[in-house]
Amino acid sequence: MLKLSRLALMLAAAGVASVFLHIRSSQVATGPAAAATTSAIGFETPTPVDPIHTFGEPDIGVDPQGRVFVSGPTGTGTQRSVWFGSVDGGHTYRPVTPGPVPDSVQSFNAPPGGGDTDIAFDRSGKQYFIDLYALTCDRVATTADGGATAAQNFAGCGTSPGSDRPWLAVYDPPPTTPHQSAYAGPTPLVYEVYNNLVGPGPDGGEQWNKSLDGLTYTDATNADQEGAALVTTSTEPTYSPFGGDGYPAIDQVTGKVFQTAGFQNDDGTYDLLLNIGTPDAAGNLTFLDAPVLPGGGPDYTKLIHVADNLPDSPDVLFSAASMDSARNLFVAWTLDADSSSPGQRQTYVAAASAASGWTNWTRPVRVSDASTGTGDAVNVFPWIKAGGPGRADAVWYGSDKNVDPSTNAGQSWNVFMSQVVLPTDASGAITGASPSTTLVKVTPHPMHYDSICLAGMIQPGFAPDNQQLVDHSGAGVVTVARQSSGLGLYGKPVSGPSHAPANGISDASGDARYPVIGGVNVPGMDIVGTQLSLSGSTLTVTTKVVDLAHPSITSSALAAPLLHYVTRWQLGNTLYYAAMENTAANQPRFYAGKTQSVDLCSVSACFPHVLTYPEPDLGGTAEAGSVTCPVAPSAKTPCAITIKVNAADVGSPQARSLLEEVGTYALATSHPEGATTNAQAQADNVPLEIDGACCFNYAQKH
């Protein structure tokens, strides 16, 4: 089942929103705009995660060492999800897999999977991964060395009644954190939680399991208030904890877990309710709605009310929770609506403090603006991240037309963010006073056009013979946007490169490693900079690489017969590229054109899964080019690839045209890209990125 087609956002600091008082009505507040006390919130030039694979529903995480990771499914049809680690602070990414070392023949070899993914970390930086396997069970994996090596296992396959929308939560408090938990075992303690599909209660309820290594999980849901018995995933007919589908939070002081979901009332309205699970000495969780005795049904009267009498469900898709550094819990949700009232689909935030036992919730504040003028008329897919006391960033998709999201009406979708700041007392607890909100459009251009299907797994409008050119109305080219100005989530100014047009970008040497994480540097793939210039009808692309004088050594080191150096960009709504291919025999050729794709099918659709940059005889156009090298190439005196591209071959950019998200990638390739077959794409026999320099915007006149 589709989880969340959220665009990955990496903020320069982390933060959360806070809460007010317990509410028992449907009244909401619209927060006042934040005072302009510092520079406005802005974002760097967006960074495409992968120039080859497209995927949806991405996760992003930053470990304690500052390393950035992304994961997401390519679809159940491929039975594969992708998992990436960045080697340069989140600007380019490399595959992480528990299978064979990624090479030019296969990047990812870790099926089954291809459903919902999630990643989490403990304090040491060990990373935990989970991937849904066709609504049947979950694939779990870990890496303790930043992705250089990984191990995997399967949870529930063959015994579970089914799984959907799995999440992870890690209890691993620092030694200085007050210990107010009954849990007496070792840490880190890892929880996985998923919708068990056939359990009792709304949405089937949730199943919580626990692990000490992230690979072997056991049941962790107490069947009654005394913890006398455990609920099992395969046999329990009467009780599963309330909270299906909501993204959880965990408190490092008490070890409690939190999950919100919508509950439909008899009159058709909905309440947004909170369930809290409290660990016992063994780490098993007793939830608020647990029966008094084993075998009894859930007691929903014990759940905490976050917001009441909502006109429609807050679960489409999803409610998300996050806890700030002062233990204020934030929740974000977007209201559902029928097709006659799409403008009701707005995003809200509420919060509660630990001091109240997370029972007294602030009045919900609408953080979206419902405006066609800003492009935020209709919302889907909210998310939230909390940071310093009383601070959170909520993000969502917003469309520019007041129409149902599942209809094709020519609407444009952008990502919006609201930074919510709630007043706090001396302890950091929210006071209940009104928050300030700062609304920002994150994406510089629409990231999707027309419908976003909310109706289930089958999306109309795609067919196997509908070979789409890859642009922002095609597959999800997952992109990371990093905050570069304004106040961050810890209340301090953040800084970073501007997204203003530039002539080029430089890249540090020494990061063209093979194996791609933890390996040795390959000078023949080590990109140290890229520049563009436009003169008349010629676009000149210049890429500097440490050593291009020895392609046979490079080819041998990578076991790759073809070496591709691809610069790509977006012009309007289309991706274009300029490239050089070389061989061990040093026979370079230069070409350019429009990025193409290989479409694969899953239960959701047939859509582009692999991007290709075709050679001259396979869809690209030959261009003039050259390679020059000094006598002794080095990082300080590198070689250069120069490609003179006929502008008409790449969309005819003009002096004031904006070429967006320009990035250059060194790819190890086993066969011509333009000849990639569906069978090869299905097997992930696609180019492997060895190095990249990403990204900048370019315009001749700026």
Describe the structure.
Helix content is 2%, strand content 38%. With 702 residues, it is mainly β. Strand 9 and strand 10 form a beta hairpin. The longest helix is centred in the last third of the chain and has 8 residues, at 551-558. The protein has three domains: 11-51 and 322-499, no CATH class; 175-223 and 241-310, no CATH class; 504-698, Immunoglobulin-like, CATH 2.60.40. Strands 44-41-40-39-47-48 form a six-stranded antiparallel beta sheet. A five-stranded mixed beta sheet has the order 2-27-26-25-24, with no helix packed on it. It contains two helices and 48 strands. It is globular, with a radius of gyration of 25 Å.
Largest sheet: 6 strands, antiparallel
Portion of residues within helices: under 10%
Using DSSP, what is the number of strands? 48
Quickly count the helices: 2
Structural class: mainly beta
Task: Compute the number of structural domains.
Answer: 3
Rg measurement, Å: 25 Å
Beta-strand portion reads: 35-45%
Distance between the termini: 45 Å
Strand order of the largest sheet: 44-41-40-39-47-48
Q: Per the principal axes of the C-alpha atoms, what is the gross shape?
A: globular
